[in-house]
Amino acid sequence: MLEAEVLAVLWSAGDALTPEEVRRRLGDDLAYTTITTILIRLQEKGAVRREPAGRGFAYAAVLREADLVANRMRALLEDQRDRDGVLSRFVAGLDAKTQAALRQALESGQGQR
User: pLDDT class for 112, splitting at 50, 70, 90?
Assistant: First the structure.
């Protein structure tokens, strides 16, 4: 997924990048307009912010990778009729270490939103 690749570039950069800088880091085979379109879509989704840079804009990631993955997981779960069944199967497929981490996250996150 191109959006994920663009976000990975922004996360690794740490600073805001112009579309051209993102394009160069991804490889010159992508069109500048393609990268710009992806960055605008990511901005509309709230995943990146843009700031003035010369005559254009530079973009920086707003969400951390963990936030993005958590949002995707939440969206997938919201689309399910049998959430309990999905969650049960999900947890059953986790190794003991991951189950313990999930248990700790649930305990520390109770009452938070």
Answer: low
Q: How many domains does the chain have?
A: 2
Q: Has residue 71 been placed in a domain? A: yes
Buried (b) or exposed (e) across 79-111, using 16+ Cβ within 10 A?
A: eeeeeeeeeeeeeeeeeeeeeeeeeeeeeeeee
pLDDT in tens, 28-82: 789 999 999 999 999 998 899 999 999 999 999 998 878 878 888 888 899 899 9
